[in-house]
Amino acid sequence: MAENKFNYCIENIRMSPIVMISEEVRIKGVEFKEKTGKSIIPFQRGEIDFATPEYIRNAAKKAIDGGFTKYPKSGGEKRFKEAVINKLKRYNKVEGLDEDNVVATYGGQEALELTFQLFHGKKVAGFAPAWSCVLENFVPYADVDFIEVPLEKDFSVDFDRLEEVLKEVALFYLNTPQNPTGKLFSKDEVTKIAQLCLKHDVFLLSDEAYERIVFDGKSHFSPLSLEYDNIISAFTLSKTYSMTGWRLGYLVTRNKEIARLMRLGNYTQTAGVTTFLQYAAAEALDNAEEDEKAVGAMVAEFSKRRDALYEGFKQIPGINFDKPDGAFYLFPNFSEHIPAGLTGVERNTYIYKKLLEEGVAAVYGSCFGSHFVDNVRFSFSGVTIEQINEGVERMKKIFK
Amino acid sequence: MAENKFNYCIENIRMSPIVMISEEVRIKGVEFKEKTGKSIIPFQRGEIDFATPEYIRNAAKKAIDGGFTKYPKSGGEKRFKEAVINKLKRYNKVEGLDEDNVVATYGGQEALELTFQLFHGKKVAGFAPAWSCVLENFVPYADVDFIEVPLEKDFSVDFDRLEEVLKEVALFYLNTPQNPTGKLFSKDEVTKIAQLCLKHDVFLLSDEAYERIVFDGKSHFSPLSLEYDNIISAFTLSKTYSMTGWRLGYLVTRNKEIARLMRLGNYTQTAGVTTFLQYAAAEALDNAEEDEKAVGAMVAEFSKRRDALYEGFKQIPGINFDKPDGAFYLFPNFSEHIPAGLTGVERNTYIYKKLLEEGVAAVYGSCFGSHFVDNVRFSFSGVTIEQINEGVERMKKIFK
Known about the structure:
By secondary structure, chain A is of the alpha/beta class. Chain A has helices at 8-11, 17-36, 54-65, 78-90, 107-118, 132-141, 159-166, 187-199, 256-270, 275-286, 288-314, 344-348, 350-357, 385-398; strands at 41-42, 102-105, 123-128, 145-150, 171-175, 203-207, 231-236, 249-253, 329-330, 360-361, 363-364, 376-379. In chain A, the strands form 3 sheets. Chain A has a 7-stranded mixed sheet, with helices on both faces. In chain A, strands 9-12-11 form a 3-stranded antiparallel sheet, with helices on one face. Chain A has a two-stranded parallel ribbon with strand order 1-10. Chain A is globular and about 60 Å long.
């Protein structure tokens, strides 16, 4: 057997198709502008068009000048971990944790990547559709065998199907609220999933990146509050505080052996998270008053955008789906607008191309796994109400 | 065969013995203070007691308010990469690179870790003594078989021995100036090492963390300037600008395939380096005037400390070594002060314990591999001249 020149796990990492879509949108955008004088509506973006709240920027600047520029403590600064524990109590109703349950990470990304690495080479499952980064990055890098458990067409869970798969795997990946569907898993669903994992000796990796972006008074339920030992939760400040470029997150688990291993992994990879940024993160999480103000304003705006886009889709024949309760995505199914007989890449990109031609950018469903390839993801994280309305008008002309 | 519950590569990562030493020094420090009213002299510290220069702190604050808080570009911001390329030209005399040769990383740490991962499971070699983090963290995490190539007693290179080992390995790790010896490898040595690597189809991982901490007008020679395709250099801002807690570094290689894989690895692990910090790093590297001022002052102080400590050791019988040209460590051999017949851990920690009892903290040689176990590392990165002199006085009482 020929030996690989390099580690095949790195060689197998794929560039996100969303990055390729962004590049195509950039190029097509120039052409579209020349032809029509108008801009493409960027529903493909996952970036948030809010600034990081001032109180957090000020905390970072203060920490820089305060001399918090020395090596970080292994696993995270005391101040940061305390803020995380307080936040988990206040917002997630999670009790009984101490500093050894928390690991500071570079975004939710590093928390997820380290957890996948912990299960290197094993069988892992998650619901489909699934966040593209899981499929393109974590799965190949950790060399796991990933089983997609498809949600129903209305994004509900087939628990029998789930249980069959849980008999075979070491880890289950759950993302709630979910990218790309916007589905907020209910307390009952999360509890049942966690219990099934426990029953079959499966660890549950709970990706709670969008926990604060929930609408209509609904609330996110973290499986951490169940007090099971098999739950590993990944959190990030990226979406909550519009801090995508700060790269701040944390991993929380009641299983201290796992937390210890994740500290070692984090130290080995990066020697820890930038010290002064942990102080800014602590302020972000701890200052309940400023937090409510900033997050409240953002979620109110996202809620309006969701409503505008959702109402827009109601005017398009053949598109029917329930309004999602979280995150900043809609994931409608376009089956009725795809010509019969189309298959493969041609089918998968048919709607995407048609939309892009008319100045509407979105992400095709096959970026999120092998089910739901007739769906398309629309993000409203970086578009105004005016852009949404204009996008809907353009779509109404395509799909009559 | 029983299946591992978790990834054994993470389970095999060891906590740095230097962390354990720090903890012991902290505890003993309290006792020592109670007994003598004095403090332990912290020669064990790798931390730098300078503040990050103001021009860099200002650049970070400006970038935070400038809105550079969105997702970083894959592999690094254009502004950062340009600054790296300029710095490589200006300081390292390295020409002919473009942005695709550079990857932004979380400190030198992530550049080294990713490179070790690229050679996962293969044979790797490096000189002994070697930085403890290589042995305790990178080697187990990347599951490489690491061969120590011992330097001679005077830290010179046995090239025949090196060449024999290079016939067997895929990667060679070089650290110049070197931790723990302070050895600055000469241009001739670096060139010969790189050529031997090239001859035997071995990649050279060049850890240049201490490149700017060189004394007496000597200068660091980067193998990158050789224009070979087999060289991967890891740089960090940590030591140069007293930015250990900022976690900023970069990987540079003429091999664009490797750079591409490292970008994918970096993206998968962390989604890239904090955007606004890359702008601060660019300013650190680009502002030649402020750089010279800040680094010049720091190196002048380190030079004085090195001289004071070196002159101190001259007064201790049985300690003989050449004054090193770089980094901030001395690594004297204490063989003559170790009782005959002592072996194993008892021998390895004999001098360390004796020193600590008398209020001198340092790191024993076995932290740096299996050769040089009678040596002890003294860092002068975090001690004043007064502390050095006091430490020398204490040692003179022990070793008569």
